[in-house]
Amino acid sequence: MDKIDRRILRLLQEDSTIAVADLAKKVGLSTTPCWRRIQKLEEDGVIRKRVALLNPEKVNGRVTVFVSIRTNSHSMEWLKRFSEVIGEFPEVVEFYRMSGDIDYLLRVVVPDIAAYDAFYQKLIAKIEIRDVSSTFAMERIKYTTELPLDYMVLDKP
Amino acid sequence: MDKIDRRILRLLQEDSTIAVADLAKKVGLSTTPCWRRIQKLEEDGVIRKRVALLNPEKVNGRVTVFVSIRTNSHSMEWLKRFSEVIGEFPEVVEFYRMSGDIDYLLRVVVPDIAAYDAFYQKLIAKIEIRDVSSTFAMERIKYTTELPLDYMVLDKP
DNA sequence: GTCGCATAAAGAAAAATATTCCGCAAGCAT
DNA sequence: ATGCTTGCGGAATATTTTTCTTTATGCGAC
Q1: In A, which residues are within 8 Å of B67 by CB distance?
Q2: Which nucleotide comes closest to A39 if you measure CA to C1'?
Q3: Which residue, of A34, A75, A157, B145, has the greatest Cβ tally within 10 A?
């Protein structure tokens, strides 16, 4: 892993449609070695997948809600069940187990507040939760899938 | 926008490397009309971009922190300045203006707690903030860039 | 009904791109 | 120096995308 790999990752994080030949030019390689590096990055699991990102507005996903959850049962069993339930909801796009006084945090995408309420009702019908607190995002100021690469560990500079 | 478009979007959200011919087969079209639909979805801005998603572990981004921010100055000026500052930090991958008693919410990705502290110091050096509260994610249970398409409005079913 | 028009599909051809194959050069241990 | 490993590059090949042209279908005006 060196500077060139990092440059490749940076560019692919921005736009994965770029042709290997163009990418190669930008990082100062010819297409073959560049192509091989990309393959390796995929094999090694550094590149997890390539996806299309949609415009939330255009697919009726205007509202983002952060849902803070506290639970009574801190057992593995409960978490397993909870994870499965959450997995079934495409509205939940992020799901973290947290430190601090909130046990779990969800990010939920829905068209409007009514749809959020419907989601909420469905959720609490499926599994018991001690405490749920919802906070609505008014504006999405920044959202990126690009991870910071400055911290990456390089073998060869 | 019809069921076929939705199927195309669903598949491209999962994996954008799929060949148009294969995609076409899956949605029951031949390559040309399928290709044209994809073009249109891109023109219309439904498909925003195509990117490579990296494995956070492999690029030294093991720690996710949610940062709740409250401010004194609720002016446009301050927000503009704040947005610019945040924009400079690649560690901040999400940034929302919120309802409720928290004004802004950040999601920050860093290698470890020390790096988070360094980020925090840099941030508060650049702009004055009334109150900052950091909560660490212990585990990322679900993370997807796939938006729910069930809510999408279809002209033709 | 049928004519003309608009929309969407399909097949084949052309262009662009990805992938493979082979040889060359540099670094390094023996 | 010799042999080995690693990484690069150019050319050939295979795939895929993109364009071009044709055909089918639905629909309103007459």
Answers
A1: none
A2: C19
A3: A34
